[in-house]
Write a structure and sequence with these properties.
Layout lengths: L1 H15 L3 H34 L5 H11 L4 H12 L14 H37 L8 H7 L1 H16 L3 H7 L9 H11 L2 H34 L1
């Protein structure tokens, strides 16, 4: 217990000292995860909305697949991206393996199903509520998508925060495609795994504390967004 207290104290001092190596790891983690979330949002928001308002044969099967992909194992995603970006893969000519870009691609594949599935659910509920009003304005189903996305912006922000939380806590996929290279692809989760195995618990704990704080801030943002959405709906 005494050793743990000492390591925790050293971790807190490491955070407060502004250690440049540690904070560069934190910043890279945030840059990769935020970029992946933005890309996933650009694809998943319209895709989920279109899936919600359109009717086509096999739609239920597509919805089931999208929902199932929310639980996609990260190591499977990492292996898939690795095979695509390796020298013998179809995209090997791009030389993206073991770069932050490869990590972003892996995280996009993990976050995209979450954003798409939650967007479909949110927009589907809004479409059921406002369908008659929107049709009375002469709008087609596709034309209602921007209106519904705007109306559900607070709920959709919750979906994006959930996606970001998944991305920033990811370790398996980014380790496979990023390689955990110091000052290049080393992020918080992979550093925690590495430093723990080396016995450098102070750095691992420092990054763990920061990761927990980020998770708490994301959850607080989700709760605040949900509360604001509730107030907006009753206004």
């Amino acid at each position: 217990m005494q050793n743990f207290a000492e390591e925790l104290r050293a971790a807190l001092l490491l955070i407060l000292s502004g250690d440049p190596d540690m904070w560069s790891i934190v910043l890279l983690s945030l840059r990769v995860s935020l970029t992946a979330t933005v890309v996933a949002a650009a694809i998943g928001l319209p895709l989920g909305a279109i899936l919600a308002v359109t009717r086509f044969p096999g739609k239920q099967l597509v919805v089931i697949v999208v929902n199932a992909l929310m639980g996609l194992p990260p190591v499977v995603v990492g292996l898939t991206v690795y095979l695509l970006l390796s020298n013998s893969g179809p995209l090997g000519v791009l030389s993206l393996l073991y770069t932050p870009t490869a990590m972003i691609v892996a995280q996009v594949l993990l976050v995209l199903p979450i954003v798409t599935a939650l967007t479909r659910q949110i927009i589907s509920e809004l479409d059921g509520e406002y369908a008659d009003q929107l049709r009375s304005l002469g709008l087609s189903r596709m034309q209602t998508v921007p209106t519904l996305l705007w109306d559900g912006r607070f709920q959709l922000l919750t979906a994006l925060l959930a996606g970001f939380g998944r991305a920033v806590a990811e370790v398996g996929a980014v380790l496979i495609v990023g390689g955990n290279i110091n000052h290049v692809t080393r992020v918080m989760t992979t550093t925690i795994a590495l430093e723990t195995s080396k016995g450098n618990l102070s750095l691992a704990l420092a990054l763990g504390v920061i990761l927990i704080l980020i998770a708490l801030m994301v959850n607080a943002a989700v709760a605040a967004t949900a509360l604001r959405a509730q107030r907006f709906s009753h206004a």
